[in-house]
User: What shape does this take?
Amino acid sequence: MKTRLLLVALILAAGVAFYLTTIRPMLQPAPPRISPRLLKTLRPPEVEPPAVALPTPNFDIPTLTPPPLAAKPAAPSADPLRPIPMEVPIQPATTIDFSTGAPIIKTQGEDQVALDKALKEMAEATKNTTFPATPPKR
Assistant: This one.
């Protein structure tokens, strides 16, 4: 029973505090308007001007000169469309690989076997091949 009474008292105190802090101030009338005569008598205090006077900045506008014109356009030093030959010395029993763009010389045993096999196949395929003679052009 005591706890119920304490709970009711606590709820009642919270309700009164809520009423006094939020609802009651809203029910009171607004403060009266300030009369214009009173406003005329109110003036801001006099303030002295600052003692240090800053000079007015003066900016000079720079004169722009156009860049000098070239008498003749510069010619490119090399033809960019002309391919550059890659010089690789010929070496027997080696393979030159261009798959990366640069010549790489490979000397592996399986490359030599593949080369020998390909040469044998080409020799057998062209063994009986003959071309007829063409008449000379006039």
